[in-house]
Amino acid sequence: MRPTYPVTELLGDGIGPELSRAVHTLADALPVRLEFVPIDLTVENRKLVGPKIYDEATDSINATRVALKHPTATVAESPNAILRRRLDLSVIHRPVYTIPGVPTNFRRELDLDIVRIATGGTYDDPGRLIGDDGAVSLRIVERKPVAQAARYAFNLARRTNKRVTTASKYTIQKATDGLFERVAKEVAVQFPEVAHSVELFDALLGKVIMAPEKFQIVLVLNEYGDFLSDMACGLAGSLGIGASANLAFDASGVVRVALFDAAHGTAPDIAGKGLANPTAIFLALAMLLYQLGEITVGQAVKNATLDLLREGIRTPDLGGGESTESFTAAVASAVVTRLD
Ligand code: NAI
Fold first, then answer.
1. Taking Cα atoms as reference points, which of 283, 185, 187 lies closest to residue 243?
2. Backbone angles phi, psi at 63, to 5 degrees
3. Residue 140: CB within 6 Å of ligand 1?
4. Domains of the chain
5. Predicted local confidence at residue 237, as pLDDT
6. Which atom belonging to ligand 1 lies closest to the Cα atom of 262?
7. pLDDT of amino acid 102
8. What single-letter DSSP state applies at residue 319?
9. Ligand 1 binding pocket mutation candidate from 264, 269, 317 (most atoms within 8 A of CB)
10. Is the shortest distance between the CB of 121 and ligand 1 below 6 Å?
11. Could you tell me if the CB of 277 is within 6 A of ligand 1?
């Protein structure tokens, strides 16, 4: 009997159906059984069912506790924003690393786990004009999501034997960023075996470029995480190849639900042509397997995918000649070999 896990699968637009088929082919090759519960978030079904579709989605995710989301077109509403609000997904974990075969201008290796508080900062308040020539907005930092993100980051560090860096502008933004660093330190003392360093955020950006090997897990507030993620992805040359975990926590700080997705969109220009690169959704699946505690299986999915890219087995967006289907078959067979 293979261990069985229910997983909500949020179906999407454009290349979504091809990616879903690829995920199922790969999942069938795994020594665990993922019991997918499909929720149709395509534009047609969102129009047909209306907002009720999000009740179905949240009910299912709350029951299965893990979800894999395919890209969805933002038309009237953004499904991502709605799910984030409804499920209280307050933290985003975004691993960013140089991927063999992905062209980049950066000559160094980068391997960062960015843990970002996904609420507050300046993003919850659009601000207001004061007369014609001035404007203000509120910057919000709250203990709860900072503590949740910090606990997640330090637990990740403990599990993976990595260091944590917190970065902010605490010397200038004394109240907001000062609170962030204070809460992070309170959590850090509960993890005495994990090395923790503090950087000024502007300095961190320079240091990541000059000495990327010094940084492993970086814990940051919302807007800093936004900037750092895109800079790191740009360095890795992998804007569209990464994946993230979107996390919600229970009262004791344990992950309550986790939604995994690829960074790219629906790629309408190539939809239905067998050209979609499933790398990002496979990396999202690998993270989902880690969350289920299936570390070895997750690692096999990640490493098989990256090794094939290194060997030049790639889809056309990376200069290769594989179709979605043939690349998927290669990954599935490499995963089986690895786990044997
Ligand atoms: P996009 O990421 O869909 O496409 C940008 C370019 O990258 C296109 O040339 C596309 O063909 C290519 N590309 C993207 N993913 C690829 C893959 N897996 N394999 C091969 N090539 C790939 O971004 P764009 O064009 O800005 O957005 C298109 C739609 O996607 C919009 O409706 C947008 O709202 C939605 N979107 C959804 C996201 C989500 O659900 N997480 C995230 C970003 C955009």
1. 283
2. -80, -45
3. no
4. 1-95+240-340 (3.40.718.10), 104-236 (3.40.718.10)
5. 84
6. 41
7. 81
8. T
9. 264
10. no
11. yes
Q: Say which residue the tokens 């004791």 belong to.
A: 252
pLDDT number for residue 56 = 98
What local confidence, expressed as pLDDT, does residue 241 receive? 83
Distance of CA 307 to the CA centre of its chain: 21
Question: Is 72 close to ligand 1, i.e. is its CB under 6 Å away?
Answer: yes
Residue with tokens 């990616």: 19
How many angstroms is it from 284 CA to the middle of ligand 1? 16
β 91-97/196-200 pair status: unpaired
- Ligand 1: residue whose CA is nearest its atom 23: 265
Answer yes or no: is the C-beta of 266 below 6 A from any ligand 1 atom: yes
C-alpha closest to that of 60 among 119, 11, 4, 1:
11
Per-residue pLDDT reduced to its tens digit, 61-92: 999 999 999 999 999 889 998 999 999 999 99
Residue ID of nearest Cα to ligand 1 atom 5: 267
User: Contact at 8 Å (CB) between 77 and 51?
Assistant: no
Q: Which amino acid is at 66?
A: V
CA 194/CA 73 separation, integer angstroms:
41
- Report, as an integer, the average pLDDT of 302-306: 95
Cβ 242 vs Cβ 234: under 8 Å:
no
Q: Are 5 and 34 in contact (CB under 8 A)?
A: yes
Answer whether 0.85 is exceeded by the pTM: yes
